[in-house]
Amino acid sequence: MSGALQAIIFDFDGVIANSEPLHLRAFQQTLAEEHLAITAQEYYSRYLGFDDVGVFAALARDRGVGMSERHIAELVARKGVHLQQMLQAGEVLFPGAADFIRAAALAVPIAVASGALRHEIEEVLDATGLRPLFRVIVGSGDTPQSKPSPAPYLLAVGRLREQTGETLVARRCVAIEDSRWGLESARGAGLRCVGVTNSYPASELAGAELIVDGLKSLTIPMIERLIETGTETQVGA
Description:
237 residues; alpha/beta; DNA polymerase, domain 1; single chain
């Protein structure tokens, strides 16, 4: 392990991946083949809560276009192809994310603690070649309570302890988050906190001890300096 730093735990959407714009682009490409269109404003305000089938079905109703279940299934498959092509091109990652993750994994064990579905997290990490670097992934449904509860971070640290055989100390582990809810979760688990301004401005990242404009601006020495300024508290077993 590198210095006093023992582990880094990443939030996913908003820190590593910016996936919703890719889903929108995949829908737009697929709909364009049907001579239909959807704007970003429409997608985020009207359709974001649907799964893929629901998006196409709801949009067909809204546009007054008849679509059979078979046709919708074909659209879903085509949308999946478009999305996979973008994922494989690495477009889903925030700038500098892959480089920082590789550097972090060389320094200490790393994990994900996210409210995203596990299969969505793994799909992105597999497509970008980063999955083997993460010792632990905690996703939606892995804990009874989600963020801002500390449960996701407590579980991630507990599983890292099992993986490494090390006695991990909360104040020697760092969480990287993009929202005040995530920061509240990490602080509740006793971790040190880095905030990134990918989703919210610095003024809305209360609880972050270090704020940067993305993983592209973060380095392991910066995190080590953060760790060296605090006292240690033990994470519960």
